[in-house]
Specification:
This protein is an all-alpha fold and 228 residues long. The chain contains nine helices and no strands.
Length: 228
């Protein structure tokens, strides 16, 4: 029962999600209240109409509209989170390659991160870089944890290699072998990502086409039946 409530009624980590996505929690709650109000208004109209016309479907639709109004903004946040994660994966190889290039022209790791800020690959990454730099400057002895927090925003297996690279560079300097290993891993991940995305896009196109064909056939049948 608690798992069902957690999944369908609660909004886990909404505070964290809003911070990560650069959304004011106050604005989120305001939009959620507006959505709930609209859902309630629709529900009242639908339920009233259902009672008047003795239509169970309208009554059920009214009840469902309340739930949709309550969850709509949370679904929007979760959809934005998934979109952001996907964008981060697409930017990640370019970011790492730029980082590696800057390493060979700058002897200071934090200076490299400061330069990375100027590229503005993604607002999420910009915020993560600011947090990394500020935390490192305040507590350089916690560098391993600070680097881990940054690398964790990229949900990919090579992020652990990036983290280890940052730790080792901070302690011992640049190691060409570690960089080559990271580049090879990212290249493999890119190939898998492109293949998976191409397959998913193909499926979506097929599904849209199937829906279109089905709708056309249904419309054609309705026209034929009406003509007969």
């Amino acid at each position: 029962m608690s798992s069902l409530i957690e999944r369908y009624l609660r909004e886990p980590f909404i505070n964290v999600l809003c911070v990560e996505l650069g959304i004011e929690l106050r604005d989120y709650k305001l939009k959620r209240n507006v959505s709930i109000a609209i859902g309630v208004i629709i529900a009242i109209l639908a339920i009233f109409s259902g009672i008047v016309f003795a239509n169970v479907f309208l009554i059920v639709s009214g009840i469902v509209s309340i739930y949709i109004g309550y969850r709509l903004q949370y679904w929007r946040i979760k959809r934005l989170e998934r979109k952001t994660r996907d964008q981060l994966l697409s930017v990640y190889p370019i970011l790492v390659q730029t980082f590696i290039s800057l390493l060979y022209t700058n002897d200071n790791l934090i200076k490299v991160f400061l330069l990375l800020e100027n590229y503005h690959y993604h607002p999420y990454i910009d915020r993560a870089l600011v947090i990394l730099i500020n935390k490192y400057q305040l507590n350089p002895e916690n560098s391993e944890l600070i680097f881990a927090e940054f690398c964790n925003i990229f949900e990919t297996s090579s992020a652990s290699l990036l983290h280890q690279l940052l730790v080792n560079i901070n302690e011992y300097g640049v190691n060409d072998n570690e960089i080559s290993l990271l580049e090879a891993k990212i290249e493999t991940e890119c190939d898998k990502y492109i293949s998976a995305k191409t397959l998913n896009d193909g499926r979506k196109i097929f599904q849209i086409g199937a829906v279109g064909v089905t709708a056309f056939i249904c419309l054609l049948l309705v026209i034929i039946i009406a003509a007969v």
